[in-house]
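hey can u run this one w/ iron/sulfur cluster bound, need the structure tokens asap thx
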Amino acid sequence: MTLSTNGPNSDLIYKGTTVTIEIDPHAGFCFGVDRAVHLAESLLQKDSQAYCVGDIVHNQKEMDRLSQLGLTFVNHQELENQTSKKVLFRAHGEPPQSYQLANQKQHQLTDATCPVVVKLQQRVKKAWETMINLNGQVIIFGKRNHAEVLGLVGQTQNQAVVIENMNDLDAIDFSRPIEVFSQTTSSLTDYKLFCERITSKAQSTLKINDTICRQVSSREPWLKAFVITVEVMIFVGGTKSSNAKFLHGVCKSHNPDSFLVSGVDDIQMEWFAGKTRVGISGATSTPLWQLQEVAQWLHQNLNEQIKN
Ligand code: SF4
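ok here u go:
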């Protein structure tokens, strides 16, 4: 069988049944993460050692691969303890203080912040400058401790109000002007519900910005269309990836035989008994090479079962 990412492959015989393994054509890194990984690789081609602040991607296998190439993952405190190093800022972005620190410590900075996030940071900063004069508030809909959100809040001198869910609504003063942004990877459905809710409560001016990245939100309808074409879905994602949990949930709601795995070690062969069509997809943090590895492994092991 030839493995391909672009469509159905040759058939694979499994327990006397014809089995097809197909990798979701829309799977793989999003543009921003792909760019950050390429920037890291080219940095390591010139120098054998570089430092990345935080996880470059929520995928341990990809982090291990980059570690072997010479990338060391550090936190902000460790960055502060070093001087004159090659430093990479990942796709999620950083608050202004991180740039000041890198400058102060004379690090040579490669900024891999996704251009979409850079633009969002600029918009949040501008909104904050406007809101100061109006006694208003900047609201960020997203995960409080997510790196991207910390980078956005940093544009507002840490004054933006972060809303994770409807339970946080009391943190908003609805009598004052409000401008709202979303973390790029938030759920479109949740953000719409949140916006409807605050629209009904706002007593002053309210400006809502749609800042969800379509590289992520488009995955949901594409995945729905793909998962119903297969009998078993193997969804590959890192245990720290919220995107993996979310997209696996999407798979599960349309195909109960959807399984979240971080690699081939988590796969149980009984999932495939009597099945003829297997799909493989992954989070926006799962590299294509890892999906191909899983497809190769399944191809080999399902074949071995038949021989036995
Ligand atoms: S999800 Fe979108 S905004 Fe975030 S890193 Fe990927 S491409 Fe950039």
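The two ends are 19 Å apart (CA to CA). anyway lmk if its weird
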